[in-house]
Write a structure and sequence with these properties.
Blueprint lengths: L1 E6 L14 E2 L2 E2 H12 L2 E6 L3 H8 L5 E5 L7 H11 L4 E5 L7 H5 L10 E6 L2 E8 L4 H6 L4 H5 L4 E5 L11 H9 L7
Parallel strand pairs: 1-4, 1-6, 4-5, 7-9
Antiparallel strand pairs: 2-3, 6-8, 7-8
Length: 188
């Protein structure tokens, strides 16, 4: 299985590149990346906005394959598709702004993929990440006009319960402040 980390977004709601913000001695994206590297021997990082700054960080981590999404301004769907094109096996898709994601929460969902075409982490009723996708779904997801997550609703997707790190993303200055203050909940 390949981990795909999405690092191409423009952080419009944050006002600056959220992936490069510091947290506990690393950047937000490094926190997420190191968790993925605990779980998968193959990780593909999808870059886009501020590519050079992000890739400078990625090169510190041997074995991380970098794929540039030249269509990053069109949204997350194009980054997910770029990752699906680059991977040759089942994948786990994770946005780069989940600094509280834990390896145990990733590993907990992997067994469910044996019985379903896709699996998604949930924290209570909130959908989170990773989203696991079997390679058999890739042609369908590459050709869909819908968003990836809307397209997955047409397929049987298993849910599993995981920790708050699967849903606590850093999209706004308020959320980043909450992270730094230790006010970790799913409210905005």
């Amino acid at each position: 299985m390949t981990g795909i980390i999405l690092l191409a977004g423009m952080s419009k709601r944050m006002g600056e590149n959220k992936l490069l913000l510091p947290y506990e001695g690393k950047t937000i994206c490094e926190r997420t990346l190191t968790t993925l590297l605990e779980c998968f021997s193959s990780v593909i990082a999808i870059t886009g906005y501020e590519r050079e700054r992000i890739e400078e960080i990625l090169y510190k981590y041997p074995g991380v394959e970098v794929a540039f999404n030249e269509r990053f301004e069109e949204g997350q769907k194009t980054s997910i598709q770029k990752g699906l094109e680059a991977a040759s096996d089942d994948v786990a898709i994770v946005p780069g702004d989940l600094p509280l994601l834990r390896a145990t929460d990733i590993r907990k969902g992997i067994p469910s993929l044996a019985g379903y075409p896709s699996v998604r982490a949930y924290h209570h009723e909130s959908p989170g990440h990773p989203v696991f996708i079997r390679k058999e779904l890739v042609p369908f997801l590459l050709s869909t006009e819908k968003s990836i997550f809307d397209a997955l609703r047409e397929k049987e997707t298993a849910r599993y319960q995981a920790g708050i790190g699967t849903v606590f993303d850093i999209d706004t200055p308020e959320r980043y402040k909450a992270l730094l203050d230790g006010d970790v909940s799913i409210h905005d």
